[in-house]
Write a structure and sequence with these properties.
single chain; 7 helices; 27% strand
Length: 347
Amino acid sequence: MEDHLNEYSEEVEEGEMFEHYRLTVDPGQSSLRIDKFLSNRIDNASRSRIQAAADAGNILVNQMSVKPNYKVKPNDEILIVMDYPRRELKIIPEDISLDIVYEDDQLLVINKPPDFVVHPGHGNYSGTLVNALAYYFRDLPLFNSEDPRPGLVHRIDKDTSGLMVVAKTETAKNKLALQFYEKTSERRYQALVWGSVKEDQATITGNIGRSLKNRQVFTVFPESDYGKHAVTHYKVLKRIGYVTLVECKLETGRTHQIRVHMKYINHPLFNDANYGGDQILRGTTFSKYRQFVQNCFKILPRQALHAKTLGFTHPSTGKFMQFDSELPEDMSTVIDKWENYIAYRND
């Protein structure tokens, strides 16, 4: 059986926003409704939570969705994904503007700006996306004011910009969560990284875990059981002298995954202070060049990472939906400056 401990902070992983359990029915198990079987086997799992998961199609037996009245059989392989129980955490609704690119009765897709924290915590108890959603959803009939993560099924870092999908009903929330858990959603990012990336496209695989030397950052453990399995696919979009614009496709959703994986292959994200990208890592020693890079850092005071494309199956219609967003002004301006610098450099 697998489970995860959730923390209401900016470090919550996508996979840790919901409880995931895998278990095998004992060979001698007698016939029993699966909702009762699971409530007996999983601590703090009420029949209502289990039934809500089943209604959303989030109880799979031998990879097939089942209803709450399904009778378990010996050696059945069961997967259940369900929302965490509500906890004592007061969320204050705040009237914060949201850039909504799509909305219907089941969900909305937003374009998150940089410097916008998703979850309260670590000194950010107000002014977060969660506070904004609590206000926006305040009149929804199914909105629960005690939900510490109203509608959230995935997340992106504070200083990463881009697209997120937010559910407006519990059923949509559970169905979207299952897609992220089973990796059937599509997420493509664009990142500006240091150096000229050699391969046109490649895959980075390596367990990601919190650094043993600095608990504020994460690192790759390539030959260890420590950390969690992580896979990032990338391809080069444009080589611009001392930096490269790449597209990254996430197969897993670990904390800081793209940032950690790109540093692991010696191409940290441009101006990523946590992973060394806020230093001049490539280029010349000329003072004019140093000043140019420092000016770029001022224009883009964050890691150069944008969640550009998001795709998922609509929880009600069953149709695949895909959304694309423009690069934010700070990233596009810096890319233009690099292109101009390289075009007219005399070093």
